[in-house]
Every structure is written in structure tokens, then in C-alpha cells.
Amino acid sequence: MDFIDKVVATMEVVGKEVADKTKEVADNAKLNIQIKEAESDLKNCYEKIGKQYYSETKDTPYPEYLELFETIEKLESLIRKKKEELAAGK
Does the model's pTM come out above 0.70? Predict the structure, then answer.
């Protein structure tokens, strides 16, 4: 019986360790998801600020933003042209 008691005790310890590790992994996964969600929300806020700033100042940008503004205008024009091509092909 002593042998069986030791085996049972060992299995209980191992089972608890596995359960603890599983909980730790699950908790870390939840934290990582929360971090990714917060990072995504932050990125969206920055994007909204950028779009609003561009919209409000596109006619008179600061010189340090001029190149980016020109790139935005070129890309917007390209997108419009490609959409027109798609519409004409329908």
C-alpha cells in the first residue's frame, strides 16, 4: 500500500503542477489578447488624428509634412482612377 500511496501522491502533485501551468498559460494568453486589442485601439486613434489633421490642413501643410501630403494626394488620385477603370469595365 505504501507504494500505491506514493504513486497517488506523486500524481496529485503532478496534476496540480499541470493545472497551475495551464492556468498560467491561459492567463498569459488573455493578457496578450488584451494588449493586442489596446494596441489596435491606439493605432486607430492615431489614424483618426492623422486623417483629421490631414483633412484640416491639406491646403496649407507644414513643410515637414509636405512630402507625405503629396504622397497621399497621389495615392488618392491613383485609387480614384483605378475605381473608374473598374466601373468602366462593368
Answer: no
Is 54 exposed, middle or buried, given 0-12, 13-18 or 19+ CB atoms closer than 10 A?
middle
Over the stretch 24-66, which tens digit does the pLDDT of each residue have? 999 999 999 999 999 999 999 999 999 999 999 999 999 999 9
All 3 cell numbers of residue 69?
501630403
**Region class of 62: left (phi > 0), else alpha (psi between -120 and 50), else beta:** beta
48, 55 in Cβ contact below 8 A?
Answer: no
**With contact defined as beta carbons under 8 Å apart, do 70 and 54 qualify?**
no
Alpha carbons 77 and 9: distance in angstroms, whole number: 72
